[in-house]
Automatic annotation (TrEMBL):
Superkingdom: Bacteria
Transmembrane feature ranges: 33-56, 112-129, 135-153, 223-244, 250-269
Protein name per UniProt: ABC transporter ATP-binding protein
InterPro entries hit by this protein: AAA+_ATPase (IPR003593), ABC1_TM_dom (IPR011527), ABC1_TM_sf (IPR036640), ABC_transporter-like_ATP-bd (IPR003439), ABC_transporter-like_CS (IPR017871), P-loop_NTPase (IPR027417), Type_1_exporter (IPR039421)
Topology relative to the membrane: Multi-pass membrane protein
Keyword Transmembrane helix carried by entry: yes
Species in which this protein is naturally found: Paenibacillus lemnae
Alphabetic keyword roster: ATP-binding, Cell membrane, Membrane, Nucleotide-binding, Transmembrane, Transmembrane helix, Transport
Amino acid sequence: MCATALGLVYPNLLRILVDNIIMDGKFELVPKLSLFIVGVIALKSLLQYIHGFVGARVGNRLVLRLRNTCYEKLQMLPANYYDKVKTGDLVSRMTSDLEAIRNFIGFDFAQFINMGLTIVFGSLLMLWIDWRLTLLTLLLCPLLIFMTFRFEGHIHPAYRGIRQSMGRLSATVQENIAGIRTVKSFAREDHEVDKFAVHNETYRQAQVEASDVLARYYPVIELLANLCPVLLLLFGGLQVIHGSLSLGEWVQMSTLTWLIVSPMWWIGFHINKYTQAKASGERVIELLDHQTSYRRSNCTLDKPTGIPIQGDVSFEQVSFAYGDDTSAYALSEFTLQSASGSVIGIIGRTGSGKSTVMHLLTQAYEAAAGKIQIDGVEFDRWDPEILKEAIVPVFQETFLFSASIRDNISYGVDEVTDEQIMEAAVMAQAHEFIERLPKGYDTVIGERGLGLSGGQKQRIAIARALIRNPRILLLDDATSAVDVETEAKILTALKEYMKGRTTFIIAHRISSVWHADEIIVLDKGKIVQRGQHEQLAAAQGLYRDIYEVQSSGLMS
Ligand SMILES: Nc1ncnc2c1ncn2[C@@H]1O[C@H](COP(=O)(O)OP(=O)(O)OP(=O)(O)O)[C@@H](O)[C@H]1O
C-alpha cells in the first residue's frame, strides 16, 4: 500500500518540476528535485522488494500447510474414495495445482491489491485535477474492464480443461509405470504409446484453446488501453494550448493515466493467473471437502475406549453393496458367530464376497444392513483406533514399501526389538529366506516389493501382521502364492500363536481352511454351506465340488 501511495506521489513531483521549477526558470532546483524523485522511486523499490519477499514467504507457508492438510486428508479418506480416483490425478492436485495456488497467493494476490489501490486513488487524483478531462480520458475504461471480465469468462473454462487434462496425463503415466510388466509381457507398448499420445493431444488442445482465447483478447485489450493516453493527448493538449490546463498538470495527468491504464491492461493477465489458481483451488477443495470416514465423524461418545478386545466376532444378517444398487449385494444376509480362539475359514468361488467380509471388519466399508458386533458391542460403538489395533489384515494383494525388510515387518509398531521381528518372521516362515539374502533383514526391497517372489512378499506381509499382536487376524488369500508345504508350516505356527484369538482365513484352496473350526462356503454373496471339513466334504454341495476338483489335481 505504501509502495502504491509513493507511486502516486511521483506524478505530482513531475508537475512541480514542470510548473514551478522549469516554467519559472528556477533551474538550480532541478538537480535537488530530481534527486528527491529518485529517492521516492528508490523507497518504492525497497517497499516492493519487501512485498515480494514477504509475499513469497506467505505463499510458501500457506502451500506447505495446504499440502500437509491434503496429505492428511488422503490418509483419512474412506476406501471407496480410492475406488473412483486415479492416483496420477491426485498426485497432480498435490503438485501442480498447489503450485498454481502458491504463485497466486505469493505474487498475484498482492498485485491485485496494488492495482486496485492505484486505479481508485489515481482516478480520484485525476478527477481532482480536472474531472472533465479525466472522464474524457478514461472514457474507454468501462469497455476495457468489460473486455477483461469477458476474457476471464472464457479463459477460466480453458484453464480448468488444462488442469483436468494434465491430471489425466499424469494418471496415464502413473498407471503405465505401475503396470509396466503387464504392458511388456502383453507386447502392448505401441498401444500404450498411442493411449498416451491421445491424452497428450487432448492436453495440447486444451493449451491451444487457452492460447486462442489469449490471442483473441490481448490485442483488443491492448488497443483499448493505448487509446486512453491518445485521448488525453488530444483533449488535454487542446486545453494546454488554450491555457486552461498547465503543462505540469498535463504531465501529471499523463503519468497518472499510464499508472491507471497499465493495471487495467494487466488485469487480464492477473485475472488469468487468478483463474488458473481458482481452477486449481477448486480441485484441491474438492479433495479437502470430501467426506472422511462416516464412522470417524459419527463416533458416539459412549464408545468403549481402553477396553482390550477379546476377539468374539458376530455378524447378524449383514448385507452390503459396493455401489448404490442394493439389488447387487456383494454380501447378503451374512450371519456368523465366532468365539475368541476360533478359526473361521471362508471359501467360495471368485467374486463370491469373501474379501467383502474382511473389508467390513477392517472398516474400509460399512454394512448397509444388519449388525456387526465385536465382543458383544456394536461395531459403531468401538473406538475405530482400538478396532484397528486389534483387527489386523493381510491383504490379497501384498503391498510392501520400498524400505528394508526390517522396516516393512515393523511397519505400524512403534517400539519393536530385533527379536520380535525375527520371531514374527519365523512364524511366517520368512526368516530362512531373509537370512539367506546378502544383507538379511537390512535388505532394501524395491518399490511395491519388486525383487522378491510373490510367496516371499506374502510371508513378509504375514510377519508384518503378526508383529502387531492381533486379537483378530484376517488372512485374505494370504498364502495363495506360497507352496502347500510352507503354507502348512505357517498355519501350524499360527495355530499356536493365535490361541485365544480369532483367525479368519479366506482362501480358494481347501488346504488353507480344512483345519478351521467352522468353514463358511459363499456363493454369490450368500452362505450356501457351513460346518467342519469332514461334514462338508461328505455332503453334496459346492464345498465337495471344490474339494473333488482340488484333490483330483485339476486345480491346486
Ligand atoms: N471396490 C469394489 N467396487 C465395486 N465392486 C466390488 C469392489 N470390490 C469387489 N466388488 C464386487 O463385489 C463382489 C464380491 O467381491 P469380493 O472381492 O468380496 O469377492 P471374493 O470372493 O473375495 O473374490 P476373489 O476370490 O476373486 O478374491 C464381486 O462381484 C466384485 O466384483
